[in-house]
Amino acid sequence: MDGKLIDRIRGARRIAALTGAGISTASGIPDYRGPEGVWTRTPSAVNAFTLENFMAGSAVRREFWRAYADHAAWRAEPNAAHRALAELDTAGVAVRVLTQNVDGLHQRAGLAARKVLELHGSMHTTRCTGCAAGFPTTEILAADDEDPACPRCGGILKLDVVLFGQLLDGDVLGQARTIAAASGLFLAIGSSLQVEPAASLCTVAVRAGATLVVVNRDPTPYDDDAAFVLREDIEAVVPELCAAVTR
Fold first, then answer.
1. Which UniProt keywords apply (predicted)?
2. Any known ligand binding at 150?
3. 161 with 123: CB under 8 angstroms?
4. pLDDT > 70: percent of the chain
5. In whole angstroms, what is the distance from residue 41 CA to residue 142 CA?
6. Distance separating alpha carbons of residues 198 and 80, to the nearest angstrom
7. CA 38 to the chain's CA centroid
8. 153 is in an annotated binding site
9. Where in the chain are the domains?
10. Which end of the chain, N or C, is surrounded by fewer C-beta atoms within 10 Å?
11. Which residues contact 214 (CB under 8 A, 6 or more apart)?
């Protein structure tokens, strides 16, 4: 690893990590835009992940629920990158994860739920679009209904995830911006940084004086703002970065 990078991040006490689908691919969860990504292999799948389409048609909802019924995330385990971030926290470094992922692997790796902001929601909970009642997704899937209805009011159920055309939770986004602005080191890991407003957290951090390190296989729109850009294997390089912080 670049000695200048090690010198720059050694001893960082406030770290924010914006994580995207790329951090979970080593756990067996496909990303969205990569060579084997969900959108790459099945471009039409985007339709089922668009709020307007989801709400308008039962056929779209059935396609959506089929996509999650046997999703790889149900069987996935945290990988070395997830664990390295959790171990930084155990070592006494102030770590906050701002994740675009909905898989819950950061929490399973050992980070307390309060230290993980799920910007795009969680696949582990389901909510009624009518009465807003919430349910564990496993209970909804166990009913084996292709287009499940709310047990309380009969309304349309939707995973507690943000779909295209749906706004992020304002409180969560506000917390994320506060965390980004307070960080000394901001890691953007495994994110294409093409989805806003989550990607703009990089700008919030840099403007506040943080060191931005982008770790991603492909170029991103924020590479020019980064102090360092790493095109290395995420599962290998994130533990190295975390180890460098505590040297």
1. Metal-binding, NAD, Transferase, Zinc
2. yes
3. yes
4. 94
5. 28
6. 24
7. 15
8. yes
9. 1-29+77-120+167-247, 30-70+122-161
10. C
11. 188, 193, 202, 220, 222, 223, 226, 228, 229, 230
Is pTM beyond 0.90 here? yes
- Biggest alpha carbon–alpha carbon distance for the chain: 59
Catalytic residues: 120
Average pLDDT over residues 162-177: 94
Strands (E), 55-179: 94-99, 116-118, 121-128, 134-136, 157-161
DSSP 8-class letter at 50? B
Residue 202 annotated in ligand binding: no
Tokens, residue 131: 């009465």
The CATH superfamily assigned to 30-70+122-161 is SIR2/SIRT2 'Small Domain' (3.30.1600.10)
Angle in degrees, 0-180, between the axes of helices 80-90 and 234-245, rounded to the nearest 10:
10
